[in-house]
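Sequence only, no structure available. Ideas?
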Amino acid sequence: MLLLYILRGVFVLIVAAIAFFHAKNIEALKEYQHAVILLGVTGAFLIIVVDMIWPRKSLRALAGILFGLLAGMLVAYVFSMAVDFVAAVYIAEPEKIKWFGTLQFIKFMVGAVSCYLTISFVMQTKDDFRFVIPYVEFSRQTKGARPFLLDTSVIIDGRIADICQTGIIESEVVVPRFVLQELQTIADSADRLKRKRGRRGLDILNAMQADKNIDLLIRDINFAGDLAGGVDEMLVQAAERTDGRIVTNDYNLNKIAQLRGVEVINVNDLANALKPVFLPGEGLKLKIVKPGEGTGQGVGYLDDGTMVVVEQARNRIGKTVSIVVTSALQTSAGRLVFSKLADEDPGNASRDSSRSNNRSNPRNHRPGRNQ
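Reply:
I predicted one. Tokens follow.
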């Protein structure tokens, strides 16, 4: 940052020196030396002020403007040669002075129009084709940070706000205008549950926008043609146009985007990846809360919501037992852990000892009829 201030100071000094040199050596400016120097220094300060007001600059946008300007100047030069040729053929030599001002006006107007059109064309189509300028590459596969496009479901879910607050996301978080409109429609729904979900999504967006650490943008993205697929289709096309990544927890949207070659970040997959890993043989304490689907199985849940199936624990519902992990299964719905009762569990030990006592105690054997 200090180097930038030094650069600005050197820039002002250089401009002042250039103005002083020309004011001193050009005869017509000698009487206005102080005014010329003041004008040059003022212009330098104005440029610095503009540079400070516009802190976030895009190298791609600047390179697009320069490339469009060069192309426009080339078109204007070719057209000016055509104008001079037509004037040489159809305008007599004595009348050229009369037509000189008109020809110059035509040339300048064509130059301005061609520069504007080429710059506008390059800025609007730089994501649709590839051409290389030194140090800059325009392509659909944008180098560097790519925007995150939020889906309606992930906004209502709310976990994206917590993820952004951790500071690990350095890209722009973009909410397309049509996603915001869908949230507003849900918030105005006659169904109470839908209305509650929609208002929750709007509250989460307001909180993210108020957070200075989150770069949240509401962006209008234009589309061509009929979009019969609704918001999901529009979101996929928006990701294709902006080379962004879709953030969602919608399974169907995830599959559609992958088929179209669009990168998707599923919040559920991210949450599952952050859950602790349990290795076979690892022991832990667990409260059995309900019976399982299999015979004799009991089911409990860890603090992060991971479901644990415990063999031969159906009769331990409501109790906290010691278990040993046997295996883990990762599914689209989450992680599933299979386990068994630990040998050192007191309840298990007492049950095993009572069984052995029943077998060894002769009083527990009913005598046969022949005895």
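Residues 148-273 form a domain with the Rossmann fold fold (CATH 3.40.50.1010).
Hope that gets you unstuck.
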